[in-house]
Amino acid sequence: MNFHPHRRGLFAATIAATLLAHPLVGWAQKADYPNRPVRVIVPFVPGGNADSSARIFAEAYGKQLGQSFIVENKGGAGGMIGAAQMVRAAADGYTIMIGTTAPIVASWQLAGKTASYSLNDMQPVALLTRVPGVIVTKADSPLKSYADLVAYGKAHPGKLKFGHPGNGTAGHVNILQMQKAQSQQFIIAAYRGAGPAVQDLLGGQLDAVATDLPSALQLIKAGQLRALSVVFPQRVASLPEVATMAELK
Question: Which domain of life is it from (predicted)?
């Protein structure tokens, strides 16, 4: 993996398994890079997978390179606010972003002519993670299975309140795919990250949330959320009892 300090850096965070596996020597084309603090933009509010990945990255690389990697959360607009700030920064390798597929490939396309950047304005550096998605409800919800969710949606057209971390995120896309597959219409609420969406679910403002698994796993294990389905090619080791969407179709 080669780092190009003359171009804008972009890290795609979509499982943190490979975050520390890349050889550090491959990052520097200049012998003294980095010689000052590096700004690490996370285009979502604290509490989600991109935020967690960024903080692991910043701490580890900061220690090994002897320089500060400063994480800044710039949430909103499906990650576009943070991505736009990264694109506007000097293209010197000292402003990078740890994001997801939303601001990288989806949100700016959904925004159309109003988007202030495109993929051509970014330099991909490394795929850090691949993360399963998950559909969750509050633990005491009457919707105790994916079948319950589908049945409720059919019995109450346009009433099911579904939240996601932001427009263009995988959670958003998963909800849209569910709508199409089930020929249903949901009330879809976009948030500035997974954390606020999950908090509203716990507070009773939503019926379900589609998000990345790391953002919900602790609350699932604590018995506060119930996982109805995982969105991944196969079942995941942390929730082996939860079926994939493919199994439930």
Answer: Bacteria
> Rounded to an integer, what is the distance from CA 198 to the centroid of its chain?
13
DSSP element (H, E) containing 175? helix 170-182
Instruction: Report which secondary-structure segment, H or E, holds 128.
Output: strand 123-129
> What contacts 105, CB < 8 A, 6 or more positions away?
119
Q: Out of 3.40.190.150, 3.30.70.360, 3.40.50.170, 3.20.20.70, which CATH number does the structure's domain 38-121 have? A: 3.40.190.150
Residue 212 near residue 132 (C-beta atoms within 8 A): yes
Three-state SS sequence of 30-67: CCCCCCCCEEEEECCCCCCHHHHHHHHHHHHHHHHHCC
Superfamily name and number for 133-231 = Periplasmic binding protein-like II (3.40.190.10)
Per-residue pLDDT of 17-68, as tens digits, reads: 223 222 334 444 567 888 999 999 998 888 777 888 889 889 988 998 899 9
Name 111's Cβ contacts closer than 8 Å, sequence gap at least 6.
77, 80
Q: What is the rounded average pLDDT of the residues 149-173?
A: 92
Lowest mean per-residue pLDDT among 8-12, 47-51, 158-162, 194-198: 8-12
Q: Please name which of 73, 68, 77, 67 lies closest in space to residue 51, comparing C-alpha atoms.
A: 73
